[in-house]
Amino acid sequence: MHLEPAPGPRYTPSRTDVYLRVLSALMLRDMRSRFGGTYWGYLVQVLWPCAHLGIIVGVMAFRGIRSPMGDDTMLFVASGALPALAFQYISREVMKGYMIHKPLTYFPQVKRFDTIIARILVEIVSSFMGVCLIFVVLLCFGSDPVPVDIFTAICGYLTAIALGVGVGTINVGICSVFPGWTIGYIVVTLTLYLTSGVYFLACYMPKEIYQYMKWNPITQIIEWVRLGYEPTIPAEVDYLYLFGWVFGSLTIGLLMERFVVRAQQ
User: Fold this and answer.
1) Terminal C-alpha separation, the chain
2) What is the DSSP letter of 38?
3) Using 50, 70 and 90 to split pLDDT, how confident is the model at 1?
4) What is the pTM of this model?
5) In Å, what is the CA distance from 133 to each residue of 50, 144, 160, 261?
6) CA-to-CA distance for 200 and 190, rounded, in angstroms?
7) 32 vs 35, 90, 121, 168, 246, CA distance in Å?
8) pLDDT tens digit string along 207-222?
């Protein structure tokens, strides 16, 4: 008489396992959806800061503009462009990721907040990969990318990322009501980028102008990072003001996700 073995207990994934699988799938889809639907397109996204740096340095060299902070033009541009681009990309791409992944929320396992978290994680990883790549490029051209005060530079860069996350969640709330904001925000970020001090030192501007420029948190974040490379520049960073921007934007963004974004479901 043949006896079949008793079936073992079926594995039931926990809610945490399901959530992590959903995030993983969203992140992989996010990476593949960039520039033609392949992982090579994601590589282009990571390489873009290098191209950006090369263009700015080339223009400055062509016009004969010298670095106002030391003798290394590449290092000067990188110390300003990297935190500014980190904020710009994260705050913009979080909003775009929400709009792109919105159809997936018809699946019961996928929540709209999951699409936001997935895009934030992808953008943070992309940002750090871009920094590593820029460091390699700087080393290849004979520059020393290591800050004099590493802790100061890292704190400034992390603040740029945190502010990008906070403003990005606010953008999600806005574009859930006004989808056209995805285009309008490009004008906002371009204006902020050109006036934040990426190509110049804001602290060397006339005092009356500098006091107005300090209302722009990106200007102060750039100066925070540059203090890590040149502690002697006369920059005035209001850390309490920046932390207020970070926590305030994140709080407003989460409240908008709770009461505005979910109301659209």
Assistant:
1) 59
2) S
3) very low
4) 0.88
5) 7, 14, 18, 36
6) 16
7) 8, 17, 15, 21, 30
8) 999 999 999 999 999 9
